[in-house]
Amino acid sequence: TLLEVEIDLARKAVQAINAMQPKPRFAVICGDLVHAYPEKQAELNASQVQMFKEIFSQVDKEITLVCACGNHDLGDRPTPGSIALWQKRFGDDYF
Known about the structure:
Blueprint: H1 2-19, E1 26-30, H2 42-56, E2 64-68, H3 71-74, H4 80-90
Helix pairs in contact: 1-2
């Protein structure tokens, strides 16, 4: 399935990040981090966010992960609620 392909690619990305020499100071993950919209498909979105976090938690702890949101992460038209949810899950929504 498409989800299985995405999971495999995410794991390969983690392996590639961890294998870089010299070790990078940070890595940027550009959205969409998940497929399900936060306000339209809240439960599915939450489970996909959890899966994303489980996979990317394997990045070497010395490498800072910077996650940039996409439209599936905030919605096509971000709302105060979707931005607050992003901040709760991932931190700052600006850099």
